[in-house]
Amino acid sequence: MKVVKFGGSSLASAQQIRKVGQIVKSDTERKIVVVSAPGKRYSEDEKVTDLLISLAEKSLQDQDYSLEMNKIVQRYQEMAEELSLNEEVMVAIESRLDQLAAGDKSHPDYYIDAFKASGEDNNAKLVAAYFNQIGIPASYVSPKEAGLLVTNEPHNARLLPDSYEKLITLREREEVVVFPGFFGYTHEGDICTFSRGGSDITGAILASGVNADLYENFTDVDAIFAANPSVVENPMAIAELTYREMRELSYAGFSVLHDEALEPAFKKGIPVVIKNTNNPNAPGTTITKEHTKEHPPIIGIASSSGFMNIYIEKYLMNREIGFGRKVLQLLEMYGLSYEHTPSGIDNMTLVLREEQVSPSIEEALITTLKEKLQVENVKIERDVALIMLVGEGMRDQIGTMATAAKAFKDQNINIDMVNQGASENSVMFGIQQKDEDKAVESLYRAFFD
Ligand SMILES: Nc1ncnc2c1ncn2[C@@H]1O[C@H](COP(=O)(O)OP(=O)(O)O)[C@@H](O)[C@H]1O
Ligand SMILES: N[C@@H](CC(=O)OP(=O)(O)O)C(=O)O
Question: Where, by residue number, does substrate bind (predicted)?
């Protein structure tokens, strides 16, 4: 049995949905189909999820949201008409949107999440109707009915593991299950979505829940490339990579697969294949436990911006028992999560996502570090990008650092921070955001050309 997820780009128009129908029809093992909301049809187009967020925000402020509502309804309407679906589908979609607009606004985050989730929910109803029309017996199944339970964290929910007890029963369905991605229900019955791009997570959860043989993730590229194709021209396609490598690459910017989508598949050892809806015969990229084929020592180069460094200096820091704990406790006190903590003898750098740290939190943090922990120097650097060189083969390769350092030097890029774990699966470089693309291009040339 295969679980198949189709991303927003694969479901953006009637023409794309027809391709999806053919892909599902061509393999009877494709029994569970997870769908995203309609994505972009062309680069300047709007994703339905983004339209739903602006609609909900306007509605919360009692502003006129008719423009967004019309655009959303029109997106589904055009697809339903072109696919010659009967009126029932559009009646259900429009009445759900009206019901949401009239919903409880006393908890804005839940109000927004219910709207966000409707993008996938309505699309699943439409796709199920289309499958039946072309002779694929199918039914829409809601996360509530299937028992997909999540934490009470709007915009950033996580799966509650007891969901698995019920999800296994999806295996018993005769017909193809069409399941909306991106959200689940809390124990209290509220809708909470995963973070953006989270339909990939739903696909992985269902694959794990039903013990699938394969999780196929259909998108709009032939493979995962060794570098982001919008930064490097014609990057090399990766035939195979491990969960560990993919986890690091998707964390650091390979948006083609959500980084949280790997854990459920990894735990059960279910292989994941990335494939192209527009070219389904291309072999795609397989993500597995171990490499089975020959592969280069560096498998990919990813980059991600929006980080900040908090550099802390205190003489004899290395002798002070509990200093690191106290620093991290301070972060906890301000509700901040940290990404990395490279350190020296008398200094420590905290790498954080900068969107969490408002100027007032920054000021309070500096004051507390100086007053409570007697830190001598605190330096803040914003607009930091992280560049990640990933590859399990790096371990047995001499000279990786030398090649990377030369690539940075050739482009006159200053390295602010280097972080390499003992596992030697990856090396991370902190640089200024303005140099991000230049750094990826230069590293790509150094390792792949
Ligand atoms: N290393 C990479 N390899 C392939 N695609 C990448 C990579 N890094 C970023 N991408 C981008 O990921 C996109 C596919 O992901 P996404 O937009 O989430 O698709 P979907 O709509 O199918 O969910 C590609 O179109 C590509 O621009
Ligand atoms: N529609 C949601 C969830 C998702 O996974 O979408 P996509 O498959 O288009 O990345 C979003 O835009 O975040």
Answer: 49, 120
CATH 3.30.2130.10 domain extents, the chain: 300-448
Q: Which ligand is nearest to the CA of 302?
A: 1
On whether 408 is known to bind a ligand per the annotation, the reply is no
Nearest ligand atom owner, CA of 124: 2
Please report which ligand is nearest the Cα atom of 52.
2
Topology of the domain comprising 300-448: VC0802-like (3.30.2130)
CB of residue 196 inside a 6 A radius of ligand 2: yes
Instruction: Say whether the ipTM exceeds 0.95.
Output: yes
pLDDT at 294: 87
Displacement of CA 195 from its chain's centroid (Å): 7
Burial class of residue 158, CB neighbours in 10 A (0-12, 13-18, 19+)? middle
Tell me whether residue 49 is annotated as binding.
Answer: yes
| Digit-coded pLDDT (tens) for 108-135 | 999 999 999 999 999 999 999 999 999 9
Residue burial 337-372, b: 16+ Cβ < 10 Å; e: rest:
eeebbbeeebbbbbbbebeebeeeebeebbeebeee
Indicate if ligand 2 lies below 6 Å from the C-beta of 38: no
Ligand 2 close to Cβ of residue 219 (< 6 A): no
Where are the CATH 3.40.1160.10 domain residues in the chain?
2-288
- Using CA atoms, how far apart are residues 254 and 232, in angstroms rounded to an integer? 13
Mutation to probe ligand 2, out of 47, 53, 72, 250 (largest number of atoms < 8 A from CB): 47
- Residue 396 is predicted with a pLDDT of 84
Q: 284 in ligand 1 pocket by Cβ < 6 Å?
A: no
Query: Which residues lie across from 238 on neighbouring strands?
Result: 224
Domain topology for 2-288 = Carbamate kinase (3.40.1160)
Per the annotation, does 240 bind a ligand?
no
CA distance linking residue 191 with residue 142, whole number of Å: 11
pTM of the entire predicted model: 0.92
Taking only the tens place, the pLDDT of each residue in 88-112 is: 999 999 999 999 999 999 999 999 9
Tell me the CA–centroid distance for residue 196 and ligand 2, in Å: 6
**Nearest in space to 209 (alpha carbons), one of 268, 283, 253:** 268
Closest listed residue to residue 416, CA positions, set 428, 400, 404, 424: 428
| Helical H segments across 269-349, by residue range | 323-333
Strands 272-276 and 214-219, bridge-based pairing: parallel
Distance CA 173, CA 151 (A): 27
**CA distances in angstroms from 221 to 216, 244, 308, listed in the order given:** 13, 21, 31
